[in-house]
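Q: Could you fold this chain for me?
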Amino acid sequence: MSDVFFLAEFVGGAPARSAQELATGAAALAKQSGGSAVGLAYGEGAAEGAAGLGAWGAARAVVLGDSNAPAITHAAAAASAVRDGELALLAPATPNGRDLAAAMVGLLGVPAFGPVRAVRFEDGRLRAEASTLQGTSVTISEPVDGAPSPAVVLVLAGTFTPEEGSGTSAVESVETDGGPLAAEHVTESHAEGKAAVNLEEAQVIVAGGRGVGSAEGFAQLQQLADALGGAVGASRAAADAGWVPYQLQIGQTGKVVKPALYLAAGISGAIQHRVGMQTAENVVAINKDPDAPIGEFADLFVVGDLFAIIPKLTEEIRRRKGA
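A: Sure. Below is the predicted structure, expressed as structure tokens.
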């Protein structure tokens, strides 16, 4: 057997960007191995939307669940759907993806790799490529001979670029009692706020660093992000200072993002932060220090006071959108 499985989360009735990326990646890997890409769909709208994964390359889709239950409760179903001998299971390096992947590693007793920046098959063997030592070195890992399969590979956002076509997936479902990881009941729930936005899927990110100076300063960045239809991110220094929650942190010890536009305000651009956003398509930086490291790789580097620039930029964007 040589199929490549991938986790496909659905949000609000549609596949998350991570699902689209992994479907495209799994299809490319399955082509190398002579198998097919198989999506393990879960989340609100998964049952109705699973066939649509075929547009991104999935030949088959297995519906694990069609509710807003915690992702980890689908682990038993996912483990039942994955057959021994398959080559790999790709999981997104998102909070839900990490939870579900970790549970499946425990249930299946298989090796795990990641988070990785590249995955490929060479001579019939899986090879997973990851950056180490703050992005200065690359390690390539593979399962040892005789290791159980499939290997679970945690994949960073932006590793694969979604390629949408017109195909459809054959859909099936799997039923289990959920096993020991099933949630018997929900004791409390909270509406997700802007602070919990999924940065890995944001196409526009306005990020702030030490130079923003306070939580009030981040309020200005939020206004700009709203005008651009994007999300707010932060450096570790800003998160450590308590100005923003840690789920907004981007960098070596935070999240890795690949937006179309990354606007960095008051961020010096040290290597620890750079490894989290260096694959952004366009980088705009605002910093009062003309020698800030971020100026070396930004597409546009504006030297100036962010508190003078950000409000005017926000006002101009709003004016143009309203015109």
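A (continued): Residues 28 and 226 are 36 Å apart (CA to CA).
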